[in-house]
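Form 7-S
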Amino acid sequence: MAKLIPPVNIEDIPIKSERDVARSLVERLPSDCTIYHSFPWLRLERNEYRPENQVLQEGEADFLIIWPDRGILVLEVKGGKIHFNHDSMQWYSTNYYGKEFQIKDPFKQASKNLHAIEAIIKKKVFSNQPLPFAYGYTVCFPDLIYKGGSAPGSDPNIVIDLSDFLTNSSFSDSIANALNKWNRTASPRPITKEDKRQIERAISPEFKLVALMSRQIANQEEQLVRLTDEQHRVLEFCQHNKRVAIEGVAGSGKTLLALSQARFYAEQGLSTLLLCYNKALANWLRENIPDELKELIQVNHFHGLVAELCRQCGQAFIPNNSAEFWSVEAADLLSNALAVLPDFRFDALVVDEAQDFLPEWWLVLDELNRDGSEGPLFVFYDPRQVLFQPKECIPDMEFGGSLPTNCRNTCEISKKCGEIISEDIKNHPLAPQGEKLELVINPSALMLGQAIEAKLKDLLLNQGLDPSQIAILSPYKKAEPLAKIKAINKLELSDDLAAWRKNRCILHTTIRSFKGLEAEVVILVSPGKPSDDSLFTKADYYVACSRAKHVLAVFSQSAL
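Output:
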């Protein structure tokens, strides 16, 4: 059986004459034949009224037959009672009620369809050279017997009638005969498999509509549920308790819940300190405090708070960049400052990124609470994101519950994060699938940099993204593959978060500086496999990947 396109049930073809012809073509022609039913074509042609312009011309062939051993044939079907009037030089059809009406010349129709299709194939497959095989057209009258004679533009060799349907061979023979008569070359060759593949692609090309990544991201963003009912239930369940720790995976909304809890305290008239580890996150939190609550909520990152209180009490804050200063001495400075500033206290504390707070810090944090260790304290943490110490050391307090559902990242990114920490991270049911992780490995820093540059240009120039939607993260302030990239589309690479948010630069910052923040697209520049004794640990890898909301691309000089 020959192949019918479109692959419909023949019995569903509404016009009986075309249904009968389709059945005969499929059943009686060889299996390597392809038959197009109701084949539409559209092409530009010269405007007969204004030759300097072109206009679109359209048409439709009832059947287009590609028979590899014989050639290409356009077959026009005219069912019912059809006749040609020599006096008027017109074709007519008579309907069921005996009413006669004028129709188009079927041979002209077939000819026009053939030449339009021929032009498409010549242009797209044979570089406008003559087709090397036979091609032509026929008109089929499946309800009539041809008795001889001819109308202008017709010939008995290109007429198929009811008698040709009586046996299998007569029908296929009539098509083969027509193609033999249409042969224009001394030695026509068959249509090769490659010819047939290219012809089918030319006359029925794949129609692709590719959404810009910017639009895909915008559509996906609507699907991402930032604060789920599940999260609200966890928070509401323990919101009135005094000292609560809530654990959550990356992307589970911990930071938004911390912000929500701080607002809950402030709306009760309680002065509240919202504290985190990361300076950039503190700036973001500060920007998202409602104006009417800014007098009651103070936002700071731990070391920024220490520096501020040292300034208020006239105490020197001189970092020496040693681990001892940032971990132990900073906590001592804070305790000393609080001893001098007895009024610097809060009714409630909320801590985000609590897994990065050191044991020494928790002791002094209670001094910030007006009621000391009995005062309200809410902490939000993810033990998988511990970056600055061997393990998280949350103080003993009531466990407020777990947030196991990711509602920030697409399913593909969440899946990658789960693979890194060997856990199955749940996604919200409405979360979009998203793009698969793009991984580029090249030991050459120069070539890897070129690949990153090409990716950035595509995102900005072709995919319609804003610079503020893209973050380049690496363990180091100056990733080696990016050394030769000064600017993309006149946008410099910078770690200035404020300029980045205003689309004035492309952000290139460290993973640890960006912790707690997010971007639609994250480009991670990795030195290779994570190592516990480096600035790129498994936790760093997890944090970096989880910052990407929609698209994650990893460029590495060795296998991860």
